[in-house]
Amino acid sequence: MYSQPIAEQSRSIWPYIQIARIDHWFKNIFMLLGVLLAFFYEPQNFSWGSIPILLLALAATCLVASSNYVLNELLDAPYDRMHPIKKNRPVPSGLIQSNLAMLEWFGLGAIGIFLASMIHPYFAATIVVFWISGIAYNVPPIRTKELPYLDVLSESLNNPIRLFLGWFAFVPDRLPPLSLTLAYWMVGAFFMATKRFAEYRRIGDKERAAQYRKSFSYYDEHRLLVSMFFYATTYALLTGIFIVRYHVELILFIPVAAAFLSYYLKIGLQDDSPVQNPEKLCRDPKFLGFMSISALVFMLLILSDIPIMYDLFNILPSSVDPLWTIGPGGTP
Question: Considering the chain, what is the average pLDDT of its residues?
Fold first, then answer.
């Protein structure tokens, strides 16, 4: 029986690997804030035996994320043909069979949900929400990615979902602080709005931009800039609530966070800005170094105890359980 040469088989399979966007898996590092918070509140739950759970949680999250990416690539193909760069993706280039891509979408999602069910029901439920959010973002008639502002808010919702995934992997009976959860959502919205701003400027023509993304028929540079300011301000205020309420040592992190957001904005305002492709931006040594230092400072501060900070800012340490308990007997 005739069989395709290995090289030819690889060329036929490679486009399906591409649309799974494995190079975007780095975004699941946002789970680590949930893991760090879980360690901060429940350090007794962590040991060397926690590593397999973390790896399983990461695997489940990456597979479901890839499932969402496959759906995105498939349904965005007519619009990607209007983009100067994305028109070269596998689907608009005609390298993908839609029935096989739909099978890939379902298969990756099903395997991810199965792996999640091996960790905890709440973790699995959050994974299902993650998967459904991808459907709501991409599939008509909802297709939130076409609606101004809701496109940014619905996609950046993946930030708090990932936080919950990292948290529920180790603390399955309680929820993390709402102030930090919402702050995480808003900083994600700031990053996403900056990406929209860069995309809009890169296309350079409102009519063509609207053909690529319907929300661009409403957006312009001023509206996107104002929305970026709104998201950044809301993030700052919510983060301040979390810091004062739970861990005042993180006040020392404020200048670092402000510097990082300012640096990101500076990059976003460049012509043909790299924030259009975050997977490429994270290969920039300067950006990666700044991000790593910021994350390290945050980790050190959240795990530190500096009593003098409470005296300096005249704040009493929290004396009550800061978390919401899930199930019977939970906090109302």
Answer: 87
In a domain, 17, yes or no: yes
169 and 65 co-located in one domain: yes
Tens of pLDDT, residues 120-141: 999 999 999 999 999 999 999 8
Closest residue by Cα to residue 34 from 112, 130, 107, 113: 130
- Tens digit of each residue's pLDDT (9 = 90 or more) over 54-70: 999 999 999 999 999 99
The string of pLDDT tens digits covering residues 196-243 is: 999 999 888 888 888 888 899 999 999 999 999 999 999 999 999 999
Structure tokens at 103: 């099978």
* 331: DSSP letter: -
Q: Among residues 154, 173, 192, which one ends one of the domains?
A: 173
- Cis before residue 141, ω within 30 degrees of 0? yes
Q: Residue 53: which H helix or E strand, with range?
A: helix 50-80
| Overall domain count for the chain | 2
Looking at the DSSP assignment, which residues form a beta bridge with residue 324?
A: 175
- Please state at what angle helix 31-41 crosses helix 285-302, rounded to 10 degrees: 20
Domain extent at residue 51: 9-173
CB of 120 closer than 8 Å to CB of 38: no
Residue 45 has pLDDT above 80, yes or no: no
Residue 327's pLDDT is: 53
196/277 same-domain check: yes
Pair (132, 151) in one structural domain = yes
